[in-house]
Specification:
This protein is mainly beta and 262 residues long. The chain has 1 helix and 22 strands. One of its GO terms (molecular function) is glutaminyl-peptide cyclotransferase activity.
Length: 262
């Protein structure tokens, strides 16, 4: 092989290695089919949403106003409600191994609650801010407003590993409410109408869903009352979504492609 050929071969080999090593961020545009539209309590500053059977769990934030509520998903009938004292600012929730886990924003406290009574059963401390929380089959995973997701032990709540979330244009900040469903993580991005589908192994964004059309007209330009809340309904293979102090919640089926569903 000539020197020229060798150089060409090496260049090709390096290019192939770079291609294989590079993350493949698809950022596929996603679309949705609206299945249901139901009333939502517009006094809830929605932080976390979790569906188990026909019961919806929802956490509501703000200092001195935080609470968690369970209600019938179809009717909105309240089953239980627990308010948090003092300066607690409630954030995301998830239900795992018959425990309801609730984060706090800057209090550095994780609360566990009995899902049947919503009574507080324990607490643990952690460092940093708490935003959203979800669970895989074995771990809890939380967001803190940065591009980093932290996977934690469900018993000790100690961090086990982290994951950097990146799209084709770089790191994705302001990740908020989380849900794990259909083998992927789903995340609201604060102060946007976007939901990201994230590869739970690599952190690559594999899809982006724009729900701007679902924002109530009087909240279109709101700084605080933004899209937040994702709960997967396994029976219907669809997602419940809402926002902070929105008067409505939606059940949507997420579909590939950017064209409107018919």
């Amino acid at each position: 092989m000539s020197v020229t050929s060798m150089r060409g071969f090496h260049a090709l080999a390096l290019a192939l290695l770079a291609f294989v090593a590079a993350p493949l961020w698809a950022d596929e545009p996603l679309n949705y089919l609206l299945l249901e539209e139901l009333a939502h309590d517009d006094q809830q500053f929605t932080q976390g949403l979790e569906l188990v059977g026909d019961v919806m769990y929802e956490s509501s934030g703000l200092t001195d106003k935080s609470f968690v509520r369970s209600y019938r998903v179809d009717t909105g009938e309240v089953i239980q409600e627990t308010h948090f004292p003092g300066r607690v600012f409630a954030e995301g929730i998830t239900l795992f191994n018959n425990k309801l886990y609730l984060l706090t924003w800057r209090n550095g406290i994780l609360f566990t609650l009995n899902p049947s009574t919503l009574q507080i059963t324990g607490s643990k401390k952690y460092r940093g801010e708490g935003w959203g929380i979800a669970h895989t089959d074995t771990e809890l995973v939380m967001s803190d407003g940065s591009p980093t997701l932290t996977f934690r032990d469900p018993v000790s709540f100690k961090p086990k590993r982290t994951l950097q979330v990146k799209g084709k244009d770089g790191a994705i900040r302001d990740l908020n409410e989380l849900e794990y469903a259909k083998g992927s993580l789903w995340a609201n991005r604060w102060q946007t109408a976007l939901i990201y589908r994230i590869d739970a192994t690599t952190g690559a964004v594999t899809g982006v869903l724009d729900l701007a059309a679902l924002i109530p007209p009087h909240l279109k330009n709101s700084y605080d009352h933004v899209l937040n809340g994702i709960a997967y309904d396994a029976d219907k293979d669809a997602f419940w979504v809402t926002g902070k102090k929105w008067p409505v919640r939606y059940l949507i089926k997420i579909l590939p492609g950017s064209k409107p569903a018919e």
